[in-house]
Sequence to fold (735 residues):
Amino acid sequence: MKYTSSLSLRGVTITLMVMALTVASLSGCGKQVIVTPQATSPRGAEQQLYKQARAAYDSGDYISASSLFDRLLQKKNLSEPEKRSAWRYFALSTIKSGKAFLGLQALDKWQASQPNAIDTTEWQDAWVLAVKQLPQNKALTILESTYNNTSKPWGLRANAALLLAGVEWKKGNTGAALTSLESLYAKAPNTKYRAALERRLFSELKDADAQLLATLSGFLTPENEITYPYSLILLEKAHRAAGDKQNWPSAWAAIERLRTLGKLADPTIIDSVLAPLQQEFGEPTQGIALALPLTGPYGNIGWKILRGAGIAHWQLTNNGYNFALKVINTESPTWEQELAALPEGFTIVGGPLRKEIFRRIYERDLTEKHAFFSFLSSLPAGTEGNDAWRFFSSPKDQVQTLLNFAQFDLGINKFAALYPNENYGKHMAQLFAELAQQQTQSSVLTASYAPKDPQGWSKNVKNLLIKSDQENKELRAVNGNVENPLYAKMNTGQYEDMPYQPAFQAVFLPDSWKNMESIIPHFFFHQEDRAVFLGTALWEQGLSAGRKLESRYYKLAVFPGIWNPFTPTNASKQLVEEMDDAGLGKPDAWVGLGYDFIRLAASMGSMPADWDDDTVNAELASAQHMDWSIAPITWDADGNATENLFLFRPSKNGFVPVNPESFSNRVNTVRIRHDERIQMMMDEADTKKAEELGISLEEYRRQQATAASSTRPITTAEAEKYGLFSFETTPATSQ
Fold:
């Protein structure tokens, strides 16, 4: 750009003439004085020109401002501060008046006079505006050059990258552009730059047409929508949707989710959108709330539940459901106030996850205002179905699933329980003993072990087998019959070191899988390989690690679980696909829990203002008949929940679902082989005895058969007389 003086030759001539006349008058004789008009000083003219230029700029007349600052810059005696200011406003006004090429040159001049200007938001904003005015080919050249120039400030390069992304998504390369923005944001050196990126992108999105915004929205997922750049896309999408009052609850839910869970460096962007909308439409009064720990030791579980809930809400709102989803972090110091402040339309609340939190909810009478579906295995006595509902499996559900499988699929009616001597183990063993006796009319032999004394576990297992073996002998003595002739022969007393013959056919083991890897092999060491081992949901966590197992020990082991990844339902398939499409990995029981809760709550519909427990129970009666992703939960007429859990068995690399028929066949095969092994042991013993007596094996067996036939069964009276009922089963609560 060429700058020339605004003083013409004619102007110079006139000035010289005035000066000559003035000198002549001053050198004249006598007291005669020639008075001439007072000329404005050069500094005064420049100041007046600056005021005019600034006035034009401040009024928005950028064309005039650009022209006036151009004239000012041609003044020779401007001070350095004046030059910096003039170049600044000349660049800004030139760009704002639409002269991009001239404006970019002026920005360079501004930077030359003030080197740190390029780091300012004002300079970079002007640069962005200028580049956006250029033809696309020229703009791309400048943007790519700026982005690749590592000597340029990071903020300017970031702006170049963002504009490049805008060009790319307009060309159809949307996914690549968004990925680039993700990477750029991750590389931002501090919060200040991240906030600048957020503001710049949101400004760009405001100018995006509906078709482009729809294309960008197609890349949103329940997981990425709270992170940059997707969070800004969601915000703008919700902002526009809120223009239709019918869409306000869903739009509010999306914005509120960003406000609560989002990770923006500049949260005021969200407030700038939400505040005026809430002032216009008010806060929605229909929705579902979640009370979850999102921080602290249980935060990971809370986020999993929320992930599933978010996917369900996403799917439902896309299918026409219109409700808000509010999330309250129960680890926040204000969680109680937030729950209390929920509008009445938020009737159903999912959570909490901790008993202590539920206790405080109950004490504050918040259960009177909202229907809480807790993610707890149990609720205080008298509250389930009245003050709150359970949306989680109970210990009873686990035990009942095991008992039903053992009795109805395997034909087992005799059980034992070996439990760790601590609260959980004692509680589960006692529950198992009570339910098993109710269901089979047979008592359960129970025994405990010290969980921190693995050296003694082998002895504990042996003692259990000895006691049950003795129980079996006493029962046979009383009943006077033996189902298997092989065992009658064993009980003649002529065989030594034979396997125990316990009365139980299955043993309940309520402990972690880590301990099972030590305890179960002890049964085999003591020659009991027929028992079915019944575990709890605790086993899943240890088996999920995928460690290789000595599977021969666990072929007859089973345990219950909530989530079945092997034979998915239609609902779980949709959840898996949604997670996979979003690159979120595989869902688990907690994700499925959140997913199904939102779907159930939405299907229950809007509760009347005068709802009560009967209202909720009536809605549950129909809503529960949905396609579940987790093990189905049913509620009876009184609101008590039961979950029909899946059954799994350990495998070489984790666990697999149980096929009842195949499992039953395996049990029968193991029993046959066990009997064959016993027969072999007795044959060896008979052969040895015959050799010692110097007779043939056939003769020895004939003599044994004759001796056995001369015996008669012991009557019940004789058994009582000789104290054969002295053995008592150990109750689960005894030590």
User: Anything to note?
Assistant: The longest strand covers residues 287-292. The chain has 29 helices and 14 strands.
